[in-house]
Amino acid sequence: MNTKTTVITEAQLGSQFAYCDKIAAYWHERETTPTAYVETYGCQQNEADSEKLRGYLTQSGYAIVQSAEGADVVIMNTCAIREHAEQRVFGNLGALTHTKRRHPRQKIFLCGCMAGETKVSDRIKRSYPYVDGCFSTHHLWQFPEILWNVLSRGKRQFYVADEAGSIAEGIPQVRDNTLKAWVSIMYGCNNFCTYCIVPYVRGRERSRKKEDILTECRALVENGTREITLLGQNVNSYGKDLEEGIDFADLLAEIAQIPGDFLIRFMTSHPRDASEKLFDTMAKYPKIAKQLHLPFQSGSSRVLKAMNRHYDRETYLKKVNYAKSVMPDLVLTSDVIVGFPGETEEEFEETISLIQEVHYDSLFTFIFSPRTGTPAATMDDPTPKEEKSRRFDKLCAVQNAISEQIHEGYVGKTLRCLVDGTDKEFLTARTEGGRLVRFQGDESLIGSYQMLTITGSTTWSLAGEMQNAECKMQN
Fold first, then answer.
1. Which CATH number fits domain 6-166: 2.60.40.1190, 3.30.565.10, 3.40.50.12160, 3.40.50.2020?
2. How far apart are CA 451 and CA 424, in angstroms?
3. 177-403 architecture in CATH?
4. What pTM does this model have?
5. What is the pLDDT of residues 257-293, one digit of tens each?
6. How many CB atoms lie within 10 A of CB 386?
């Protein structure tokens, strides 16, 4: 793999904007406004990438629509983390044969993490002749060029070269949500967990410059954004590749000092690099949400070593206990994998005991899914699927009981929440810790912070009543 990060120059990006102009002129000559649909699978980083694709499309004269039917461009921005996700993409990609038959000028593209896998791009070439283009995350910045080549040459385009990845500042973005924004602070991963495909499809870690991030965050706040979520495969590694002498805690502190009434969240944190300095910084600044997603993956030190996670059970618990000591109201969530190759019943019970000791607010739970090209895919895995499913069900039952208990403890409390949407006859809001609250109110409240008294709870959400007018954060 090429391990040298490419920084895209202004001139290179300017050439892409020139392609946008060519595409816009192409449609103008045909006296029509083209439409485009972008479907996103997977993580928040993919969502952020889709915002850039929509930005390029808008600059090229396309109107963004909410369905593939009839769209002139369809982009499937994919995830490669689990086998089920890949099979779903291929199923949906197959269904596009019908939309293209009804709309022959439709151009179909597959991009994202799956496109970075050679087996996938080869399969697209061989078995999906109606797909017009395939490009990896490393080539997203070149999308206007790819689209123009398809339109002007009528030939399929494959931009899937093996690269470490790039950083391109200045790509336009069309965000789905004006209240909440994703801000990528870095890309790629250097950890090479044995089960994970991400380093192979997103490349090595590379950090954006601090000033570029601060400029983006300031603009968002000035335009009314209420929550900014900083993104990276491992945000705690931020700055290691820069010469600025800045780490993630330093970046958080600077963003937290931007004027305005907003909250900062971030994900994902790797326990290996989560430091006391980070937790102290979170505790110090009111604008940093007291919410932490810290994936532990397994409660067994032996399994963690086999996963190449670079920490053991004791180290993880020490970090969690320190974070809770400086942030007593911390909302803690995590990821856990059940049925990693070779996991014994005793090791699974170590995971259960860790969950019971930490008392997570919620968990994202997965049964191990082998990914071709990763070391874990070739490990001996004697545990039957039925046994893994049994363990998975037990783990979910344990966590659901904990989540229900924690949520019951919210009843009677009055919390500052961001009103962010609707759910049938209710408004929805989020606590500082990211807990969902439903309550009665007028839709004009969306976008405001309100004091809500919690009146009820379930395993997954809270019910509340509004107490007074919009409230400002106390700095």
1. 3.40.50.12160
2. 21
3. Alpha-Beta Horseshoe (3.80)
4. 0.93
5. 999 999 999 998 999 999 999 999 999 999 999 999 9
6. 8
